[in-house]
Amino acid sequence: MPWISLIIAGLLEVVWATAMKQSNGFTRLWPSLITAGAMLVSFALLSWSMRTLPLGTAYMVWTGIGAVGAFIAGVAIYGEALTSGRIVAAVLIVGGLVLMKLSSH
């Protein structure tokens, strides 16, 4: 259950990062509220997961899901550049996540 909560927390990080971009510096109400709500739930789930998962593993997985997810959202929603260097960077992050998971007890 902690892993499922952690994955959901990471996906919510993508939600709040995307909503924050859409909030236009917190000048738009609904994206700002979505940002705050997703942040609260994401942090709560991360905190709950850390009760049983190692700190380094939990934090790396949470930020890794957020980083790769935000990269994908940026490309898919905002038309950001999809360069070979950015793809390699995302693959390296995912590789690090897999290695961290395999190295956990």
Automatic annotation (TrEMBL):
The chain crosses the membrane at residues 27-46, 58-78, 84-102. It is found in: Cell membrane. Keywords: Cell membrane, Membrane, Transmembrane, Transmembrane helix, Transport. It comes from the Bacteria. Belongs to the drug/metabolite transporter (DMT) superfamily. Small multidrug resistance (SMR) (TC 2.A.7.1) family. Gdx/SugE subfamily. This is Guanidinium exporter. It comes from Novosphingobium rhizovicinum. InterPro entries: EmrE-like (IPR037185), Small_drug/metabolite_transptr (IPR000390), Small_multidrug_res (IPR045324). The keyword Ribonucleoprotein does not apply. It is a multi-pass membrane protein. Pfam families: Multi_Drug_Res. Its main location: membrane.
